[in-house]
Amino acid sequence: MNGWTGTTLRVNLTNGDISKEPTNMENARNFFGARGLGTKILYDEVDPKVDALSPENKLIFAPGPLTGTFGPSVGRFNVVTKGPLTGAIAASNSGGSFGPEMKFAGYDMLIIEGKSKKPVYLWINDDQVEIRDAGKIWGKEVPDTTDLIRAETDEGAKVACIGPAGEKLVLFACIMNEMYRAAGRSGVGAVMGSKNLKAVAVVGNHPVVVADAKAFEAAVMIARAKIQANPVGGAGLKAYGTDVLVNILNQVGSLPARNFHDGHFPTADKIGGESLSKNVLVRPKACFSCIISCGRVSKVTNPKYAGEGEGPEYESAWGFGADCGIDDLDAITKANFICNELGLDTITMGTTIACAMDLFTDKIITEKNTDGIPLHFGDAETMVKLISMTGRREGFGDQLAEGSYRLAKKYGHPEYSMTVKKQEMPAYDPRGVQGIGLNFATANCGAAHVRGYTIAPEVLGNPFKVDQHTTDGKPALVKTFQDLTAALDSTGACLFTTFGIGAAELAAMLSACTGIAYSTEDFMKTGDRIWNLERLWNLKAGFTKADDTLPDRVLKEPIQTGPSKGDISHVGVMMPEYYKLRGWDEDGVPTEVKLRSLALL
Amino acid sequence: MQLAYFANLRDITGLSKQTWNLNGGTIGKLIGELCGTYGTQFKHWVLKDDGSLGELCIILVNGHDIRELNGLATQLHPEDEISFFPPVAGG
User: Fold this and answer.
1) Any residues with CB less than 8 A from the CB of A228 and at least 6 apart, and which?
2) How far is A123 from chain B (nearest CA, A)?
């Protein structure tokens, strides 16, 4: 088998059955792997109406055909499931080395079914697979979990695990791998916890075989050269990490502040990449096969927030920073460390705290509701304290653990939650950047920047510059980015390779790797196919066009200060054209003609 | 006018911000003066060899990208705030 291993591992935690089955190669051809193939499995095998935290949900770990090869920055995998935060399809992407190790062990996918009666972990040692007791590890944080499992299995094992947050079914718990890499969004860690599955440990010893080694090498060298020649992929991200975005978004007036009350944060410079490099950075870090090295190894020496770990990324620095009105980088970095240790999505955690601060400021909640803890924008110490409480569902943390939508709704004001499909918007104000707002509103997993990162052309001018404030041309731009990303996610490549290469180079690598000749058009069409399959699943889960929108605050309340002052989101203007370009009817339902064109009917 | 530098442009200029007296003119003129002050390293990030705007370099005037204004011919005023970013990205 080329690129793919040809084997899917299925583990039923209810009855302990472990089986290996041939990977369906027609599905692999049509959906690649990772996000695409995982989505196809979910679509075929899981009723969209199931309770996400029930044994009927499935948890699918899937690398892509490129994962584990010597391509540039191709170490990714996806976790696909029904997301408990949203009730929508979740395909949470992660880096590190876990995905490649799954391929080395011989597996295209790991499908977890059912629920174990007691805490267990899965040990995959090439073709030997065991379900092991996790009683002594249950309750441990991510670093201790990783160390203990390695001591019981293999010091070189790659470990994907949940922390206390996943065990406690925090709705935005994540799955961590290599301690600091996260399959972050939508609560995939809670699904793992609901199955009493603490971890998956993998060791593999078989290299990934490619169809045409010479052609693959040639395609890889072209891709590498283009990424390295690009000033962002080649040097910029390594020097400053993703947090360098704080200042640029703030300077264009689209850095959401204080729960999206504004799009500008006066002291943003204190929490940006420049400040991070000067104050907490130890060194950059790369994932498997990565030539970009955007990761940050960091350390806080301030005794109040002392700690070591990785991060913060831009979204995390923003979520605990500007969105909470906080400019204390030590506190923000500590918050990120705690999230990694407990296994919490930093975006939802930060923005849920911001929502709580907003509710408190407007006296919708009081100290009676918050265990006597006042919640003010700008209070860094309280922000840090709330994270530990949330990860263990202690006190008011038990309410925060439900995410901002359920928190705000509980107190009668869901409009304070800055969410789409109950998932919190990330660090880009859709009032100041029109295209990203359309992406937030239509992403199948709920609000997510990585589903169609139009910030690249709209703000950064990469690969070309478009006006961030206009709606003209944005539906087509958003669709293109969404389709490209869906296809890319399904190969195992990192999204940051697109700072340098595009569909043509990815298709060339994929073709040489798998032996299947994918043109650029085939590549993009596969992305469109994956997008539509996700959409179909969500429609069956009960989502409608009413869910393709943004919070009222960004539709009706203009940005107050800064260069985007006065802007609101015009997502409603863009939606009809977006549906049309997608080949959907006026209700956002894919037409029969569209589905046939994608071989989905 | 107020100039602000970000990312590695801070290392090159040694500053995060400064006040500059341009005596009327365009962004192109300003960059020329800054290249004269900060040398070839600054020029490398901001201009191509042919003198056109550097690839992926982001220059904002009052928060608006000059690629959407008049490029290097964008007229400046004494009260303007100009921000200089080398190619940056994230996610």
Assistant:
1) A234, A291, A500
2) 33
